Amino acid sequence: MVGQQQTTLHLLAEQVFSLTGYSYVFAYVAGVLSDRHGRKPVLLTGWILGLPVPLLIMRAPSWEWIIVANVLLGINQGLAWSTTVTMKIDLVGPRQRGLAMGLNEAAGYLAVSLTSLAAGMLAAQYGLRPAPFLLGVAYAVLALVIVALLVHETRGHVALEAPSGRANLSNTAIIADVTWRHPALSSASVVGMASNLNFGLSWGVFPLLFAGAGLSLGQIGLLVALYPLVWGLGQLATGWISDHIGRKPLVVGGMALQAGAPAVIAWSEGMGGWVAGTILLGLGSAMVYPALLAVIGDVADPAWRGRAVGVYRVWRDLGYTAGALLGGLTADALGLHSAVWAAAVLSGLVTALVAYRLTESHPGLP
């Protein structure tokens, strides 16, 4: 659902709606509802709300329709993706938590990559609408059928886990821990937000930067797809690695790569440098993503795990908005290359912060 828009939406804004300026809490709601009422109903609701998204974009007579579609997409992501993460943590123990998170995130971001590539190819062959968004219709219908018929409730597995001794935290205390108070949980939120800031920037600025250099729709689709492709494939290994060497080395090293990758992209002037930069950015994201979710699973008590994942995802997914705002405002004021340099500097500062503050959370490691 995200991938269908990644290649085409900003070009649609320019070419169809003549928008030339460069210039969300449902993840937490999902956590509260899944802790209270079960995981499956929340997952099903998320996909019901996701079904209209591609239909609205296909038929949109004005940009306001696109905004409404993306509000629904945000709700869909907040409810559905947060719940799948919580369900997988329910189903596996701490020894294989990183592997499970890596498999979950790999499935998602490989789908983003492949759909970005497919949407670019369809747009080049058949135009920006409606062909690329027929993919989203098929995905939403398929997801609804799978959730309704095949997915089982996982909340009962929580009872099999030993409590952490912090089972009675209030909602306020959980928010405080994940936002600033607990070193591991709050560090995960900061890194997640910074990582998605880079993703938001890649979604909003990179296609315009590449188009301004004269690349074709097919070449832009390839570059935009390469980032989540490396991200998705890499997570097949990085989650498992975090189960063996710990979460912190993956988080700090991955954030350092994400600081260097935008600098490579901003410095480069051709396809070779942009390919290298997007590969580095994808590898850095692959290192941090499953490790961060494993940190939440390591620390959060089973009784409030869904809410912890929800708060983390609120901060993490605010990175999309922050990346769009940072990229848009900086690009309007100083140019597209300056927006990419700004992301590199900010990612470097976050790397230094978490290297100092993040504590190792793996229960089997010091």
Helix/strand layout:
Blueprint: H1 3-6, H2 9-15, H3 26-37, H4 39-50, H5 52-59, H6 63-91, H7 97-126, H8 131-149, H9 171-181, H10 183-204, H11 206-212, H12 217-245, H13 247-267, H14 271-299, H15 305-334, H16 336-357
Helix pairs in contact: 3-4, 3-6, 3-15, 4-6, 4-8, 5-6, 5-8, 6-7, 6-15, 7-8, 7-12, 7-14, 9-10, 9-15, 10-13, 10-14, 10-15, 10-16, 11-12, 12-13, 12-14, 13-14, 13-16, 15-16
Plain-language structure description:
80% of the residues lie in helices and 0% in strands. The chain has 366 residues and is an all-alpha fold. The protein is globular and about 60 Å long. The N and C termini lie far apart (40 Å). One of its GO terms (molecular function) is transmembrane transporter activity.
Helix content estimate:
over 70%
Going by CATH, what is the homologous superfamily? Answer: MFS general substrate transporter like domains
Total E-strand runs? 0
Main sheet summary: none
**N→C terminal distance:** 40 Å
Annotation field: number of helices: 16
CATH names the topology as Growth Hormone, Chain: A
Overall 3D shape = globular
User: Order of SSEs, N→C?
Assistant: HHHHHHHHHHHHHHHH
So what's the CATH class? Mainly Alpha
Please name the CATH architecture.
Up-down Bundle
What number is the mean pLDDT? Answer: 88
Rg, alpha carbons: 20 Å
Which consecutive residue ranges, at least 5 long each, have pLDDT under 50? 20-24
Beta-strand percentage?
A: under 5%
Membrane topology: Multi-pass membrane protein
GO molecular function: transmembrane transporter activity
Pfam family, one: MFS_1
Main location: membrane
